[in-house]
Structure formats: structure tokens, C-alpha cells
Write a structure and sequence with these properties.
The chain contains three helices and seven strands. By secondary structure, it is α+β, with helices and mostly antiparallel strands. The chain has a single domain, classed as Nucleoside Triphosphate Pyrophosphohydrolase. Strands 1, 2, 3, 4, 5, 6 and 7 form a seven-stranded mixed sheet that branches. The longest helix is centred in the last third of the chain and has 17 residues. The radius of gyration is 14 Å and the shape is globular.
Length: 138
């Protein structure tokens, strides 16, 4: 069995209400959160920040107090671990990386949950939003 590790985040932006950034991947066509492979010498949160900047053009502040793990098989011989943090940004303008991202968009939390392809991502979003409400709402 081969193993891969990616890190990313549920990215929140406050514009009156909380909005979440979702991406539709160019290859798999599924809707999820931005994430990418860990490079040698990087911490998980550094990977998340770098991948988010590369894939979306957004600078984010990762909140390492929230960390979710998602394990799944991407091929019969390959298991992937995706580590997902909470991240915040004030930027609204997204610059998707065309090689990897077919579409990137902001949605209110409930609408975002409905657009996610996988139930495991909906659970991560619910948990991440509970964290945001606890630690980042004035």
C-alpha cells in the first residue's frame, strides 16, 4: 500500500455572514476544500497555507486549534490522509490555478454544505463552522 498526505483548510470569510470557499477540481470534478501535497521540510499548516495560495491566490491565517483528518483510498493501492484546518481571510477575489481548479467560489455555510460532493467533507465543514462560531465570532 502506498500513502499520500495532503493538507488544506476550510476557508472562511466574514461578509456580514460567514462564507466558505469551495473549489471544483479540474480532474476529479468533485467539489471540496483546497489542499495539496506536503513538501519536504514543511509543517502541515505551512503546506495548507502554500497550497491555498497556489490554488486560489488567497493569503490565509490558519487556525491550528482545529485539525480534522480524512483518510480514503484514491486508488486500490494508495491511501490518502488529508489534514484539514480552519483558515480565515479578508480577501474576496479568488485567482484559481487553471491546471488544478476548474472553479472556485464563495458560498454561505449552508449552501456550501449542499454543494460539497462527499459527506465526510460536510461533517468537516459542520465541525469547522462550530469552531469558527466558538473562537472567531465577536
Amino acid at each position: 500500500m502506498r500513502y499520500e498526505k495532503s493538507c488544506g483548510a476550510v476557508i472562511f470569510r466574514r461578509d456580514g455572514d460567514w462564507n466558505v470557499l469551495l473549489i471544483r477540481h479540474a480532474k476529479g470534478r468533485h467539489v471540496s476544500f483546497p489542499k495539496g501535497h506536503v513538501e519536504p521540510g514543511e509543517t502541515e499548516s505551512q503546506t495548507a497555507e502554500r497550497e491555498i495560495l497556489e490554488e486560489t491566490g488567497l493569503s490565509v491565517r490558519v487556525d491550528r486549534r482545529f485539525r480534522a483528518e480524512n483518510r480514503y483510498n484514491i486508488r486500490p493501492d494508495t491511501q490518502k490522509l488529508a489534514v484539514i484546518f480552519v483558515a480565515l481571510t479578508d480577501q474576496a477575489e479568488i485567482t484559481p490555478q487553471p491546471e488544478e481548479i476548474a472553479e472556485a467560489f464563495w458560498l454561505p455555510v449552508e449552501a456550501a454544505a449542499a454543494r460539497l460532493t462527499y459527506e465526510r467533507d460536510r461533517k468537516i465543514l459542520r465541525d469547522a463552522f462550530a469552531h469558527i462560531q466558538k473562537y472567531h465570532t465577536p
